[in-house]
Design brief:
Number of domains: 4
Structural class: alpha/beta
Number of strands: 22
Helix content: 25-40%
Strand order of the largest sheet: 3-2-1-4-5-6
CATH class of the largest domain: Alpha Beta
Number of helices: 15
CATH architecture of the largest domain: 3-Layer(aba) Sandwich
Oligomer: single chain
Largest sheet: 6 strands, parallel
Shape: globular
Distance between the termini: 35 Å
CATH topology of the largest domain: Rossmann fold
Length: 455
């Protein structure tokens, strides 16, 4: 599909990278010559310099013959104008990033009139993802498939864990629920394991399980599962505002430390049930005086990555059970993993992933066999949800009879809403959707790409 991205900032450049890697023809529009030049050097994309809301610029980018325009500049009004103009030129699908809640509400009301296919609020999307992550403190990451019926969760095996030393073929005998370990990261190595693989302390594992079994999974592996009741948020950003709103509805006690006085006053007016402290949350003295050690969850949400990392290190050192860290520079996510900062999120990645998932859904309506795609193990492993059609090979055969290519694993079968963690006796049927896990060096454009060809 030909896709035009307006705005080459954090989200725009991330989107261009992801969409290009998925085989789309991407054109990026930006009004900063240096940014356009740099992006053209780094990515396999076409670039157009200029104002994305200019008719001439959009024509130069051939927006009228594009399948989708995504406007993600820093200005809501400009994004909306870009989408309106694109529809006038003949582009059938448009996505706008709209940060202002007031604009967002009006945009939803006027969605058809404005010609919008989708509206994305990065801060609200990030707040919901953090809230979702907080429900299961044992999981460092959580990705959903099959319309939310199955999850792939990331776990760290600790010394003395129930899973330490377990051979995977014996796992189902040791657990009262059916789960599947679909990927393992051991140091710098990544494995798509078979039944003979033995887990060890220090392994980071990715486990497929029905969403309804997640609570039982945490109980079996000996991890505490609790709702956050006493939450400390450092930084009064819009993400903090939205997250507090979600937490207060669950009955949690929330305290926000924000050093800007005017922002603190605004938060106090908007969130009267929360405690707002006007102070520097990066100060260890302030954190001690506000009893940070008594919090069951600390979320570092300042606008500076380095401050968030230092706050998180400190929170870990004083024994806060759950620490969640916001970073913008994604290289930090890999750099600090395994050093006590494992629950890290990036708003730009969350926003970009949501848009990419929407693009996948668009392709599915046009007959694409791939429903969704998630990146695991720092992008080294893909989990893809695929349709089983009449053209799929090996229909009716048991999985024990089917030969898969190396480093490929079927993690889950969704059969009309029933989630099957596959075993050797299960089969593929038309209408199923299958979650396939494989390393990123293997290209999977169709479910048939995972099967070894008969000779």
């Amino acid at each position: 599909m030909k896709i035009v991205v307006v705005g080459a900032g954090k989200v725009g450049s991330t989107l261009a990278d992801q969409l290009t890697r998925e085989g789309h023809d991407v054109v990026v529009i930006d009004n900063d010559r240096d940014v356009v030049r740099q992006l053209s050097d780094e990515l396999d994309v076409l670039t157009v310099y200029g104002n994305g809301a200019s008719l001439e610029v959009q024509r130069n980018a051939d927006v009228g013959h594009s399948g989708l325009l995504i406007a993600v500049t820093p200005e809501d009004e400009l994004n909306l104008m870009c989408c309106i103009l694109a529809r006038k030129l003949g582009c059938q699908n448009t996505i706008a990033r709209v940060r202002n809640p007031e604009y967002a509400r009006q945009s939803y009301f006027l969605k058809d009139e404005l010609g919008l296919s989708m509206i994305v609020n990065p801060e609200w999307t990030a707040a919901r993802e953090v809230f979702r992550l907080m429900q299961f403190p044992a999981f460092m990451k959580r990705d959903s498939f099959a319309k939310g019926r199955v999850d792939i969760v990331e776990l760290l095996i600790k010394e003395g864990s129930f899973l330490d030393g377990v051979v995977l073929r014996e796992l189902h005998r040791k657990m009262s629920i059916r789960v599947l370990v679909c990927a393992v990261q051991r140091g710098s190595e990544v494995f798509i394991p078979d039944g003979n693989f033995q887990l060890k302390a220090g392994d980071k594992i990715y486990v497929t399980a029905p969403t309804t079994d997640l609570v039982e999974l945490t109980r079996i592996i000996g991890e505490k599962n609790y709702k956050a009741k006493n939450v400390l948020i450092i930084g009064g950003s819009r993400i903090a505002e939205y997250l507090t709103y979600l937490l207060l509805k669950t009955g949690a006690r929330v305290k926000i430390i924000e050093k800007d006085y005017e922002r603190s006053r605004f938060l106090a007016e908007m969130l009267p049930e929360a405690t707002i402290i006007n102070a520097d949350g990066t100060s260890h003295q302030v954190l001690r005086s506000e009893n940070a050690a008594q919090a069951d969850t600390l979320v570092a949400l300042t606008n500076i990555d380095e401050e968030n990392l230092i706050i998180s290190f400190y929170a870990n050192s004083i024994g806060v059970p759950q620490v969640i860290t916001k970073v913008n520079r994604t290289e930090y996510m890999e750099l600090f993993q395994g050093k006590g900062i494992d629950r890290v999120f990036s708003p730009k990645l969350i926003c970009a992933d949501r848009i990419v998932h929407y693009v996948r859904a668009m392709q599915n309506t046009e007959g694409s066999p791939i429903l969704s795609l998630h990146h695991l193990v720092n992008g080294e492993v893909h989990a893809l949800e695929c349709n089983v059609t009449e053209k799929t090979l090996n229909l009716g055969k048991t999985l024990a009879e089917i030969r898969l290519k190396p480093n490929v694993l079927m993690a889950c079968i969704n059969r009309m809403g029933k989630i099957i963690i596959p075993g050797g006796k299960d089969t593929l049927q038309v209408g199923d959707t299958v979650v396939v896990v494989t390393t990123t060096d293997r290209v999977v454009l169709d479910l048939n790409d995972i099967f070894e060809q008969e000779v």
